[in-house]
Design brief:
Elements (H helix, E strand, L loop, with lengths): L1 E4 L2 E4 L10 H5 L2 E9 L2 E2 L2 H14 L8 H15 L4 E8 L16 E7 L7 H5 L1 E5 L20 H12 L4 E5 L5 E4 L3 E6 L2 E4 L10 H12 L4 E3 L4 H5 L3 E6 L3 E8 L2 E2 L7 H17 L4
Parallel strand pairs: 7-8, 7-14, 11-12
Antiparallel strand pairs: 1-2, 1-6, 3-4, 3-5, 5-6, 8-9, 10-11, 10-13, 13-14, 14-15
Bound molecules: 4'-deoxy-4'-aminopyridoxal-5'-phosphate.
4'-deoxy-4'-aminopyridoxal-5'-phosphate binds next to α6 and β13.
Length: about 290
């Protein structure tokens, strides 16, 4: 496996950074997770744009253009000769001293890892996931904005631990106002009376690339869709619930806390969107 690190493709064993890197010491950095379908980088431009928005939010600059970052991914895919892959872009503040001062780090470390994909078990896409509502609330955007995909994921990890303790794979997180925000690694949608509904970006969420793609699919398929604040009680009595994310794609949720959702199986609108998603990425995954 070849890893692109600061402009060079090197074997995995040689892809190393310093213990003084502020990504390690303080979670000071950003990342992206991206899928490759049939050698096409799904929503490549959107992911690179989001990476640069996260960098700007943290006042982190890198010595590479968006074109060079895209090329790093294409080089990695070619080197490993992968048809389908998962790409992780990582940018850290770089090597500094043991103090917090971010601008004493001389140069960001920029890493592109092209790996194979690990997915939820296929049977879960039919049966649906069970999830819980986490007690841990999602970061307040005034403290650390969830729209910044930073290397500091402890807020999500603490909620994920609650999910694991409860014997499920995901947890819904509420925001400081008590509304639903998102899950630890996925955005959330519900379906009620034929309308698809997802929390707005003002609820304090990551602006999921898959979320936007699914909203665009709804438009294409003439399925009404709204972005509106949502209470957890509304999730529990929804006809359908599903999650979206780069890894999960689009997966049904059939149990929230103690409540069975709808018929207890993947619902018809979720199935329709799932099929449209798969058809699109398998035939010609959009790179915009
Ligand atoms: N929310 C969080 C907290 C995430 O980490 C992710 C990405 N795994 C998502 C939502 C989904 O975003 P995307 O569709 O861009 O992968």
């Amino acid at each position: 496996m070849a890893i692109w690190i600061n402009g060079n493709l090197v074997p995995k064993e040689d892809a190393k950074i310093s213990v003084f890197d502020h990504g390690l010491l303080y979670g000071d950095g950003v990342f992206e997770g991206i899928r490759v379908y049939n050698r096409r980088i799904f929503k490549c431009k959107s992911h690179i744009d989001r990476l640069y928005r996260s960098l700007d939010a943290l006042r982190l600059t890198i010595p590479y253009t968006k074109v060079e970052i895209e090329q790093s991914m294409r080089d990695g895919i070619k080197a490993d000769d992968l048809k389908d892959a998962y790409i992780r872009l990582v940018v850290t503040r770089g090597d500094g001293n043991l103090g917090l001062h971010p601008f004493q780090c001389e140069r960001a470390n920029v890493i592109t890892i092209v790996d194979s994909i690990q997915l939820y078990p296929p049977e879960l896409y039919e049966a649906g996931l069970a999830v819980i509502t986490a007690k841990r609330i999602r970061n307040d955007p005034r403290a650390l904005d969830p729209s910044v995909k930073s290397l500091n994921y402890l807020n999500n990890i603490m909620a994920k631990i609650e999910a694991i303790d409860a014997g499920v794979l995901e947890a819904i997180m509420l925001n400081t106002d008590g509304y639903v925000s998102e899950c630890t690694g996925d955005n959330i949608f519900i379906v009620k009376d034929g309308t698809v509904w997802t929390p707005p970006v003002t609820a304090g969420i990551l602006h999921g690339i898959t979320r936007q793609f699914v909203l665009d699919l709804c438009k294409k398929l003439s399925i009404p869709a709204v972005e509106h604040d949502m209470k957890i009680e509304e999730v529990r009595v929804a006809d359908e619930v599903f999650l979206t994310g780069t890894g999960a794609e689009l997966i049904a949720v059939t149990k929230v806390d103690h409540m069975i959702i709808g018929s207890g199986k993947r619902g018809p609108i979720t199935a329709k969107l799932n099929q449209a998603f798969r058809d699109t990425v398998e035939t010609n995954a959009p790179e915009d």
